[in-house]
Design a protein that fits this description.
By secondary structure, the chain is α+β, with helices and mostly antiparallel strands. It is built from four helices and five strands. The longest helix is centred in the first third of the chain and has 15 residues. The mean pLDDT is about 95.
Length: about 140
C-alpha cells in the first residue's frame, strides 16, 4: 500500500477519534476503513453505561460500510489513547473486532495499520493478528 494512502487513513482515524463517546473509560479510539472501491469509512468507539452494548471503532466503521452496501475492504488504520492526549502507543484491535474484520476480509491481503501518528505506524496482515482464523468458508 502506498505511504500516502496510509497517511490519509491515519489522518482520518485521528479525526474519527475526536468523535468518540467515552464518558466511562475516557479512552478514545478512531478507525478508518478502506473499501475495495477506495471509499473510506470512519468509526469511533461508543460506550454505554451497561458496558456490553459498547462498540469499538473498528466495528463501527465496518458496520457503517456494510449498511451502505460495501462488503469488500483492503485496509484499516487504528489510533487510540487517553482522552485529550495524543496517542502514545499502537493499539491492536480486540478479539471481537478481529473476528468481525475476518468475516469480510482476506487474512492474506487485508492490512491493519496501527498508528500513533501519520509518521509512526506499523502495518500487519490480518493473518498475523488472527492466526488459524475461522471464516465464512468454514461453514460451506
Amino acid at each position: 500500500m502506498k505511504e500516502t494512502l496510509i497517511e490519509i487513513l491515519i489522518e482520518e482515524a485521528l479525526e474519527a477519534r475526536k468523535m468518540a463517546y467515552t464518558p466511562y473509560s475516557h479512552f478514545q479510539v478512531g478507525a478508518a476503513l478502506l473499501s475495495g472501491n477506495q471509499k473510506i469509512y470512519t468509526g469511533c468507539n461508543i460506550e454505554n453505561a451497561a458496558y456490553s452494548p459498547s462498540v469499538c471503532a473498528e466495528r463501527t466503521s465496518i458496520f457503517k460500510a456494510v449498511t451502505e452496501g460495501n462488503k469488500e475492504f483492503t485496509a484499516i488504520a487504528i489510533v487510540g489513547g487517553a482522552e485529550g492526549k495524543d496517542p502514545k502507543e499502537m493499539l491492536p484491535p480486540c478479539g471481537v473486532c478481529r473476528q468481525v474484520i475476518r468475516e469480510f476480509c482476506n487474512p492474506e491481503t487485508f492490512e491493519i495499520i496501527l498508528a500513533v501518528s501519520k509518521n509512526e505506524y506499523r502495518c500487519y496482515k490480518l493473518k498475523d493478528l488472527l492466526p488459524f482464523s475461522f471464516g465464512p468458508e468454514n461453514l460451506q
